[in-house]
Amino acid sequence: MALLEIKNLYASVAGKEILKGITLKLQPGEVHAIMGPNGTGKSTLSNVIAGRDGYEVTKGEVLLDGEDVLAMAADERARAGIFLAFQYPVEIPGVTTSAFLKTALNAKRRQEGKPEIDAMEFLKLVKAKTAQLGMPYDMIKRALNVGFSGGEKKRAEVLQMTMLEPRVAILDETDSGLDIDALRVVSEGVNSLRSPDRAFLVITHYQRLLDYIVPDHVHVLAHGRIVASGGKELALELEAEGYAKYLNAAA
Amino acid sequence: MAVTRETAAAVKEVEQYKYGFVTDIESDKAPKGLNEDIIRFISAKKNEPEWMLEYRLKAYRYWLTLSDEEPAWAKLHFPKINYQDSYYYAAPKREKLASLDEVDPKLLETYKKLGIPLLEQQMLAGVAVDAVFDSVSVATTYKKKLEEMGVIFSPISEAVHKHPELVKKYLGSVVPYSDNFYATLNAAVFTDGSFVYIPKGLRCPMELSTYFRINEKNTGQFERTLIIADEGSYVSYLEGCTAPQRDENQLHAAVVELIALDDAEIKYSTVQNWYPGDADGKGGIFNFVTKRGACRGKNSKIMWTQVETGSAITWKYPSCILQGDNSVGEFYSVAITNNRQQADTGTKMIHLGKGTRSKIISKGISAGHADNTYRGLVRIGAKADQARNYTQCDSLLIGDKCGAHTVPYIETRNPTAQTEHEATTSKIGDDQLFYCMQRGMTQEEAVSLIVNGFCKEVLQTLPMEFAVEAQKLVGISLEGSVG
Asked: Over the stretch B276-330, which tens digit does the pLDDT of each residue have?
């Protein structure tokens, strides 16, 4: 059984149909990239999977290990193992990254029937994970995303992902606003999380992220449909030739 | 832990709400209404000296002249109170319950959320347990230690007898009996409260709270507190509790007076969680409180921290009169209103001495159909050279049916003074909620986390053990406020 299965998914925002029949299967261990020009429904797809308000699913299914994801509230989806790395991570003033991480981790542990993490154990874990990702430990003492640079925000997303160890991670334009050094750090973080029982859905506009996070499959999204699928070489072709021919074909 | 225990006295009333109490006009309860006889009755019940009765009567006679002068300037709406339709003296009595099974399950659920240990839950809910006696004896031990250091900490009714010179000198010296409608009423009918005196040069080694008076009778409705910190002393005082408190008496009008002499410091922390009424605004306490501190000596300091989550109506302005040169006043406030609650709260900083400084940090959170007003006055007198004030008022809105209002007054009569005022209003964003929930938090956990972040500057001024409970309380008071 696929880890995440999207079946003939239709979704609209404010009455306007954005996704028009998406079908996708992510097997454990796989990295899928979704590419496409702006305004074709890439972010809609990630928001619908994560359960953000304001998106109406009109048809189709999303299954995690065969379970109906669309029937779950956003927080239940998260605890079931779906993680969304945000394109624009949200500032939470006055809440330290550390307090935020701890609350999120404890929510997950509660789901697993485990007791709340002990304060010392938590600090040890954060220390290990920040070191592993090459991040300054002091970052966790700052209010989450407040005054963070673009690169810091994306690193904080990867740190959260590392702590929460999701089954399926969706990266929504994680490369946007990153310089080449930050892109490398973030990609290395993601790569260190690749494992045989985890799947990634990497959403991006540009091919350059895929130089660092090498996908098993690449899909082209245009006008709310997947219009082409292939291996990593498809990304290179898109880089060279642009999206024009797919847009025309889909229109 | 001390904090949750000290609440026992107040929460003993919780079940009173449900069961009512035994009435015995002869000994326990004065008849309804207010007149000079009732005041004489109260004074006689407390076996007060003549001067105390005179003080009460003076206040009462003055109050009669105020009949139509209930303050109307606050942004609060409530039906006219019939003061002749209340009881002004009632010594509460209550049957002990046999076990927690007899306690309102909703109340128990809240205790659980606040993380109150089982034993203390039993105490708070008024279940008969032997352990209560242990805690009383612990309190007695502490009390003895404090006495050895020269600290006076007793019910004010006891201080009237044992330390009349101190009470006479300071009672009404910060909040005169003629101060305002509610304070005047309080001066006439106050039942009891705390009296604290810290001797010269002593740094009181423990947080004082009504915990030590656990075996004292209820003083809820018209409480009177007087705290005096003599030269060079320090005291931290905790009032209230995080556990929800109910009371049959809808009207509460307390008065708190603080006096700090040269180089003394008083830190006064309150958590107020009186019954706020139901979701439609029925029931709930009207809380009209006058709290004021006088920094009478040079280099003295008074710091108010309040977390106000309860009551249907909160009318409260803990203030500082900065008389001594280089004295300091600080006010940190979190006021949360949900459903139909109304809060009009803030502070007054009256700068009289040279080099006086004040700081105001106010965080108002409004949800449901609630209204939350910050009202503050910073007044700098002509002689207050180089006085400084910094004011920051932040409002947070949850939903689109609530209101937040900021009414800051600044009056400066000295050209060398500096005042700064900053204010912000924000909303809990759907983006913030979704972000937290995408990390697995429930909606309620998310709201609690975000609001606690918003209030952090204030909550971190609370004593440690109080702070942890206050953080949980912030979340609980906003349950059901979103979506």
From this structure: 888 787 778 889 999 999 999 999 999 999 999 888 899 999 999 999 999 999 9
**Cα separation, B405 vs B408, whole angstroms:** 10
Which of B429, B445, B453 has its CB closest to that of A107?
B445
Entry field: residues in chain B? 483
Give the pLDDT score at B121.
64
- Domain limits for position B469: 2-477
Chain B, 455 to 474: residues with Cβ < 8 Å from chain A are: 455-457
Which phi and psi (to 5°) does residue B29 adopt? -145, 130
Topology (CATH) of A4-250: Rossmann fold (3.40.50)
Cα–Cα distance for residue pair B95/B34, rounded to 1 Å: 28
Separation of first and last alpha carbons in chain A: 33
What are the Cα distances from residue B236, in Å, to A196, B114, B269, B305, B348?
57, 23, 8, 11, 21
What's the pLDDT tens digit per position in A45-63?
A: 999 999 999 999 999 999 9
The interface predicted TM-score of the complex, written ipTM, equals 0.96
Residue B133 has pLDDT above 80, yes or no: no
**Whether pLDDT at B128 is above 70:** no
Q: Output Rg (C-alpha) for chain B, integer angstroms.
A: 22
Report domain extents, chain A: 4-250
Cβ pair A120, B455 in contact under 8 A: no
DSSP string, B448-468: HHHHHHHHHHHHTTS-HHHHH
Total number of domains constituting chain B: 1
Cβ atoms of residues A204 and A174 within 8 Å: yes
Q: Give the pLDDT band of residue B198 (cuts 50, 70, 90).
A: very high
DSSP-assigned letters across all residues of B65-96: HTTT-----SS---PPP-GGGS-S-B----PP
User: Would the pLDDT of A196 be above 60?
Assistant: yes
Yes or no: say if A224 and A40 are a contact pair by the CB < 8 Å rule: yes
Length of chain A: 251
pLDDT (tens digit per residue) in B233-247 = 999 998 876 666 555
Q: What does the pLDDT average to over A10-20? A: 93
Residues of A with Cβ-Cβ distance to B436 under 8 angstroms: 92, 100, 103-104
B480 CA: distance to closest CA in chain A (Å): 16
B482 in any annotated domain: no
Taking only residues 394 to 433 of chain B, the set having a beta carbon closer than 8 angstroms to any beta carbon of chain A reads: 429-432
Residue B218 has pLDDT above 70, yes or no: no
- The total of other beta-carbon atoms located within 10 Å of residue B310's CB is 27
